[in-house]
C-alpha cells in the first residue's frame, strides 16, 4: 500500500472500551492506518501511554492543567505531539483535514458536537457514539448527506444490519424489499430477575455483562434495556426505518448480531463472536475485510441459539424509547438526557436501578416536544431535560443499595 493510501485515523474517546479496541485493530495493520489524533476526558495517564505507543500528531484532554501535564510528559519523551484542551479542541480535531477517518467513541451527549463536526467535514465516520444520533438524528443524517461523509455504524447490531442490507438502502426499507429489521438484544445481566429483585441490584452487578465488556454507562443501559431502546432509534435514523419496522429479539448468546427480513421470506443474519473489534475492523477497512484479531466462530461450541420476546413491563426503557421516537422532534434527546442523569445517579448510588426508567418516564411526560430543527433546539431540550431529571432524582431516590 502506498503512503497516500494509508488512512489517517482520529479516535475520539480513545481511552474507552471502543477506543482501546480501535487502537488494537489499528496496531495490527501499520501499513494501512496511522493514528492522527487521540482524545480522552480525564484519563491523562492512559492517554499518555497511548501517545507513546501510537505517536499521534494531536492529543486532546478536557482540562487545561491535564493538557499541560501531558505536554510536558510527551516533550520529555521526545514526542512532538501537539496537546490541546477543551470541547472546542475536540471539534477541531474531528474536522481536521489531516485525518480522513474519525472513530466517534465518546460516550453520551458529550460526543454530539465532535461527532457532528466529523460528519459535517465529510469524513469516514465510524459511529459508536449512538447518543449523538439519538439526540440529533435528522440533523446528523442531513449533515452526512450534504458533506458526502461515509457513515459506518459501529454499534454491533447496526453494523450487522448494514452488512445484511443491500449496498444502496436509503429512501425507505420497503423500496429495497426489506420488511423488517430484527435487532437482537442479549437481555443483559438481569434478564431473569423479578420486579423486586430489580429494585436492589448494584452498579457492580449491572456493569458485569454476560457477553460483552463495555464502558460503565452502556453496561447499565444494557441492563435496563435502554441500550436497545437507543439502538431502536439509532436504527430508524441509519436505515430510514419506521419504529414499527424494528423488532427487538432477545438472544442471550449474542452470536447473531442482528438481521434483516426480506419480502420474499429470506432473513439474513450476521454472526460472530461478541467482540467489538469485528465491527470496528469492518468500519476501518470497508469495503474490504481485514483481520480484527477476533477468533473465528465455532458453531459446535455455541451449540444453540435462543430467541425470546423482550419483557417491557420489567424493562420499561425499551417502551419509553419507542414512544420517544414516535413522538419525534426533541423527545429522543429528552429521553437520552434524562437517562444519562439517571444512570449517573445509579452508578453513584444515589438512585435505585428500577428508578432509572421512572425518572426517564417522568421527565418525558413533563417536557413539551419541540421540533428538532436546529442544534440549538436540541441542546436546549437536552439542558432542560437534565435539569428536570435532577429534580426527579430526589422524588425517586427511594430504594438504594448499600
Ligand atoms: P467508555 O466509558 O469506555 O469510554 C468513553 C470515552 O469517552 C473515554 O475515552 C472517555 O475519556 C471519553 N469521554 C467521556 N466523557 C467525555 C466528555 N465529557 N468529553 C470528552 N470525552 C469524554 O465508553 P465505551 O463503552 O467505549 O462507549 C463509547 C460509545 O460507544 C458510547 O456511546 C457507547 O454507547 C458506544 N458503544 C459502545 C460499545 C462497547 O462495546 N463498549 C458497543 C456499542 C456502542
Ligand atoms: Mg449495541
Automatic annotation (TrEMBL):
Domain named DXP reductoisomerase C-terminal: which ranges? 271-387
Q: Which GO terms describe its molecular function?
A: 1-deoxy-D-xylulose-5-phosphate reductoisomerase activity
Entry keyword annotation includes Magnesium: yes
Q: Which residues form the 1-deoxy-D-xylulose 5-phosphate reductoisomerase C-terminal domain?
A: 151-239
Listed pathway(s): Isoprenoid biosynthesis; isopentenyl diphosphate biosynthesis via DXP pathway; isopentenyl diphosphate from 1-deoxy-D-xylulose 5-phosphate: step 1/6
Q: Required cofactors, per record?
A: Mg(2+); Mn(2+)
What EC number(s) is this enzyme filed under?
1.1.1.267
Domain 1-deoxy-D-xylulose 5-phosphate reductoisomerase N-terminal: residue ranges: 9-137
Task: Give residues annotated as binding 1-deoxy-D-xylulose 5-phosphate.
Answer: 130, 156-157, 186, 209, 222, 227-228, 231
Q: What class of enzyme is it?
A: oxidoreductase
Q: From the UniProt record, list the reaction(s) this protein catalyses.
A: 2-C-methyl-D-erythritol 4-phosphate + NADP(+) = 1-deoxy-D-xylulose 5-phosphate + NADPH + H(+)
- Residues at which Mn(2+) binds: 155, 157, 231
- Keywords, ordered alphabetically: Isoprene biosynthesis, Magnesium, Manganese, Metal-binding, NADP, Oxidoreductase
Superkingdom classification of source? Bacteria
InterPro entries found in the cross-reference section: DXP_reductoisomerase (IPR003821), DXP_reductoisomerase_C (IPR013644), DXP_reductoisomerase_N (IPR013512), DXPR_C (IPR026877), DXPR_C_sf (IPR036169), NAD(P)-bd_dom_sf (IPR036291)
Q: For NADPH, which residues are the binding ones?
A: 15-18, 42, 129, 131, 215
PANTHER family given for it?
1-DEOXY-D-XYLULOSE 5-PHOSPHATE REDUCTOISOMERASE, 1-DEOXY-D-XYLULOSE 5-PHOSPHATE REDUCTOISOMERASE, CHLOROPLASTIC
Family membership, please give it.
Belongs to the DXR family.
HAMAP family reported for this sequence: DXP_reductoisom
Task: Explain the purpose of this protein.
Answer: Catalyzes the NADPH-dependent rearrangement and reduction of 1-deoxy-D-xylulose-5-phosphate (DXP) to 2-C-methyl-D-erythritol 4-phosphate (MEP).
| Protein name as it appears in the record | 1-deoxy-D-xylulose 5-phosphate reductoisomerase
Recorded source organism is: Halomonas piscis
Q: Which lineage ranks, top first, belong to the organism behind this chain?
A: Bacteria, Pseudomonadati, Pseudomonadota, Gammaproteobacteria, Oceanospirillales
Gene name? ispC
Amino acid at each position: 500500500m502506498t503512503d497516500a493510501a494509508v488512512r489517517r485515523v482520529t479516535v475520539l474517546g480513545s481511552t474507552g472500551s471502543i477506543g482501546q479496541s480501535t487502537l488494537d485493530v489499528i496496531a495490527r495493520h501499520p501499513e494501512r492506518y496511522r493514528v492522527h489524533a487521540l482524545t480522552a476526558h480525564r484519563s491523562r495517564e492512559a492517554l499518555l501511554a497511548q501517545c507513546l505507543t501510537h505517536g499521534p500528531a494531536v492529543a486532546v484532554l478536557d482540562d487545561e492543567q491535564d493538557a499541560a501535564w501531558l505536554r510536558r510528559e510527551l516533550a520529555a519523551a521526545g514526542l512532538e505531539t501537539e496537546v490541546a484542551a477543551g470541547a472546542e479542541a475536540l471539534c477541531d480535531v474531528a474536522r481536521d483535514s489531516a485525518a480522513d477517518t474519525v472513530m466517534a467513541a465518546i460516550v453520551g451527549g458529550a460526543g454530539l458536537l465532535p461527532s457532528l463536526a466529523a460528519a459535517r467535514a465529510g469524513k469516514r465516520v465510524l459511529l459508536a457514539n449512538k447518543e449523538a444520533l439519538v439526540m440529533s438524528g435528522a440533523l446528523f443524517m442531513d449533515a452526512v448527506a450534504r458533506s458526502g461523509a461515509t457513515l459506518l455504524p459501529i454499534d454491533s447490531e447496526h453494523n450487522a444490519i448494514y452488512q445484511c442490507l443491500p449496498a444502496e438502502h436509503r429512501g425507505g426499507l420497503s423500496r429495497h424489499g426489506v420488511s423488517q429489521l430484527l435487532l437482537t438484544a442479549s437481555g443483559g445481566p438481569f434478564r431473569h430477575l423479578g420486579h423486586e429483585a430489580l429494585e436492589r441490584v448494584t452498579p457492580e452487578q449491572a456493569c458485569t455483562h454476560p457477553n460483552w465488556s463495555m464502558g460503565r454507562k452502556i453496561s447499565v443501559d444494557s441492563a435496563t434495556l435502554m441500550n436497545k431502546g437507543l439502538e431502536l432509534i439509532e436504527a430508524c435514523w441509519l436505515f430510514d426505518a419506521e419504529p414499527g419496522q424494528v423488532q427487538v429479539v432477545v438472544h442471550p448468546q449474542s452470536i447473531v448480531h442482528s438481521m434483516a427480513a426480506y419480502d420474499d421470506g429470506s432473513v439474513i443474519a450476521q454472526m460472530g463472536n461478541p467482540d467489538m473489534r469485528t465491527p470496528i475492523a469492518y468500519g476501518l477497512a470497508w469495503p474490504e475485510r481485514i483481520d480484527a484479531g477476533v477468533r473465528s466462530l465455532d458453531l459446535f461450541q455455541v451449540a444453540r441459539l435462543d430467541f425470546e420476546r423482550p419483557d417491557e413491563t420489567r424493562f420499561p426503557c425499551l417502551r419509553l424509547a419507542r414512544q420517544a421516537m414516535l413522538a419525534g422532534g426533541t423527545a429522543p434527546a429528552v429521553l437520552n438526557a434524562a437517562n444519562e442523569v439517571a444512570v449517573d445517579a445509579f452508578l453513584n448510588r444515589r438512585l435505585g436501578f428500577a428508578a432509572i426508567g421512572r425518572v426517564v418516564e417522568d421527565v418525558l411526560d413533563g417536557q413539551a416536544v419541540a421540533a428538532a430543527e436546529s442544534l440549538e433546539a436540541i441542546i436546549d431540550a437536552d439542558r432542560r431535560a437534565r435539569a428536570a431529571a435532577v429534580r426527579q432524582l430526589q422524588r425517586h431516590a427511594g430504594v438504594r443499595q448499600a
